[in-house]
């Protein structure tokens, strides 16, 4: 290994700083690049998954044409932390002989999460300071949890500032394993399903919602899902007064709450003034209100948890 002990310590500092600056998928690739360059590895691969699963977030450097299969095939048996592979399988014709160090790391932040990291070296290369390299990879994995938390905390910060947000957030895989979740998200689940650790979602993610990145409900919770790399970002919130309105009625209600006249709303939506008036009557009836001031108050009180 070409790096000195001082350089390894510096690498660890850089890894944590980078985790706070980049989104999770970008950080993972950049972190692999940093570790590979410091160790003299020609390439690296990294799979983070829930225990027992073959799916998760896969990253590699420098290419983007590989997959996680070699990590799963060569994974150390049982709870072993590492495996030295003297000759890695040839994956493409003409590929140079390689050796590799495969590290099996359990996340401290969640006993359900596991990372497999493979560093590939030219055949016959001398690998020094293996213990320091293991330490650097461990810190790389733990630094990635900071980047994960950044994802779910963004909307919490917006809510604390009194600004509209998408609701409380969690990052999950398609099987419902929770990779990271904000405190508010866990509180929402506890309020709906009772207290629990919630390492796994207490409900199944609808296949249609995953494929279409859509909105769905579970009990009284409103949830919205979107892809985030190979994982899914889930936002949850309590019901809002406007949830009982149709999309067009919600649109008109927000416009009226902004102080716009029936004529202005009709012009913006290209509909008749009488149509706006009819919608307004239905909106007031559904919400159980009688004056525009009450509509404004309803929207202001629900602004922090804006509809997804």
Keywords:
single chain, alpha+beta, Beta-Lactamase, Arc Repressor Mutant, subunit A, five-stranded antiparallel sheet, 10 strands
Can you give a write-up of this model?
With 308 residues, this protein is an alpha+beta fold. It has three domains: 5-149, Beta-Lactamase (2-Layer Sandwich); 166-237, no CATH class; 241-301, Orthogonal Bundle (Arc Repressor Mutant, subunit A). It has helices at 5-21, 24-39, 69-74, 130-160, 183-193, 207-212, 247-257, 262-269, 273-287, 292-301; strands at residues 43-50, 56-61, 82-85, 98-106, 113-122, 168-172, 178-181, 215-218, 221-228, 231-237. A five-stranded antiparallel beta sheet has the order 2-1-5-4-3. Strands 7-6-10-9-8 form a five-stranded antiparallel beta sheet, with helices on both faces. β4 and β5 form a beta hairpin. α2 (24-39) packs antiparallel against α4 (130-160). The longest helix has 31 residues, at 130-160. It is elongated, with a radius of gyration of 25 Å.
Give the structure's gist in a few sentences.
With 308 residues, this protein is an alpha+beta fold. It is built from 10 helices and 10 strands. The chain folds into 3 domains: 5-149, GAF domain (Beta-Lactamase), CATH 3.30.450; 166-237, no CATH class; 241-301, Winged helix-like DNA-binding domain superfamily/Winged helix DNA-binding domain (Arc Repressor Mutant, subunit A), CATH 1.10.10.10.
